[in-house]
4-hydroxy-tetrahydrodipicolinate reductase (Paenibacillus yonginensis), 267 residues
Amino acid sequence: MADQIRVAVAGAAGRMGREVVKMVLQDEELQLVSAVNRSQTGVDAGTLAGLPASGILVENDLERALKSSGADVLVDFTTPQTVYANTELAISLGVRPVVGATGFTPEQIEALDKQCQLQGIGGLIAPNFSIGAILMMQFAAQAAKYFPHLEIIEYHGDQKLDAPSGTAVKTAEWIAGNREEIRQGNPQEEETIEGARGGYYNGFRIHSVRLPGVFAQQEVIFGAHGESLKIRHDSYERSAYMPGVNHAVKRVMNYKGLLYGFEHLME
């Protein structure tokens, strides 16, 4: 067997982190070498993921974990508040970041890309690892050429920390690249309740729904004279993201620099 890719997981006890741990442990090409989380210290990462004990115990110091494990790749699905520092640390230690969290500014992404280039390693930040979601965004960007009037509605569980979602922001960026800015709606419209019309981006609106029982959905609604078009994607569980994460962990070993968006790895 070819050398395994040594993988560390940040946020290993979180809901996404456990899915990543499970994915790594079930792939013979990958080796789980570290699991980091602020809680559940000392608990076996495999057990946390619902698998037999792996021998990898959860620890709470990321720098120590990366230095001692010899990880090739850090998969990070932690919070926007911590992920930038985590990514900087990983790159400084020569560990390739595969990041599923959101909240990076364009300036931060540019800075991280330069650091990856200097270290001679690859990295990836992706708002969404679902292939279906990426296709939804691409289809929406194409449709915007012909249907420039649109609104985005994204739905997530009520515990999601950021709004709008990273996927909605990425979709908006792609759409803005394919249409001129048009301030939609009646110029005289007024919100009688603040936020009723959603967030403003490049002339259109983004609406974030947060409800218990919802996982992750997004639809882009296009309107024109006498017709409308809806492009929608639904994710039902976190396992939907794992084929993309698995692909990213393997591909990031073979290029230099930081990529923003999973679509760059889909060719």
Q: What stands out?
A: The chain is about 30% helix and 25% strand. Residues 5-125+239-265 form a domain with the Rossmann fold fold (CATH 3.40.50.720).
